[in-house]
Fold this protein.
Amino acid sequence: MDHDAETVLADDGCELWATAAGTGRPLILCHGGPGLWDMFGEVAAALAGRRRVIRWDQRGCGRSQRRGPYELARTLRDLDAVRRHFGLERAAVLGHSWGATVALRYALEHPDRVSALGYVAGTGLGRDWHPEYKRNLAERLGDRLEVLDASTDAEDREKAVLQWTADFADQARATEYAERMADPWFEINHECNAALGAEARLASRDEDELLAACRGLAVPTLIVEGALDIRPNWAVDSLHRALPSVTRVTLPDVGHVPWLEAPEAFYAALLSHL
């Protein structure tokens, strides 16, 4: 699908990689990270017969131009530039992990431009989940954690694949799944990751304000999570309670990337929502 790639110009001239495939009502996908790139190739292929699926790399990431500033508000303006580039008045927006935060915040800022929201493997609005995540990561990796800690930035791909294996409930296939996520491979933008991570930590202090905004969000929202994600599901509880139009699907025996471990259940839930 990448042969149909297009260049989207953000309002500050930054060049963003994007691609569209399929026909039907539009769905924009927002990848995780921050600092990573679009890994939704399999999702787009699965949905292309039912939806017009738009993928993009956030600024500084993957195939997009490597330049800042790296700020959530800037990311939301870039997402809006993608929407406009493809001539969309409204679209469904789905985000995974960090991308779930991007999709939610975009819907809060522009509810009239979002027909439906998909919040996949998100971490809620606070930061209380992070210590439990670190404990779960260490438990799932076991002795491999020492290898991860000893890795350097020069070994980014090997380090990422090892860390991503912890994101899967099925550890027998975890390396296979992680390798699929790493193909194609692009350099991780650590500057982007650090800047947006720091901003997210500060923003979590405004959780009550964000929850109040969520209570007024009329956009139909689907929350999808894996029951065995090392990021604790309870972190999303307050968001779930706040949203007035929400469906929550928890997939058993699934970790952080549900379309790889439970594709049939994931696509059934998504297409039902859309």
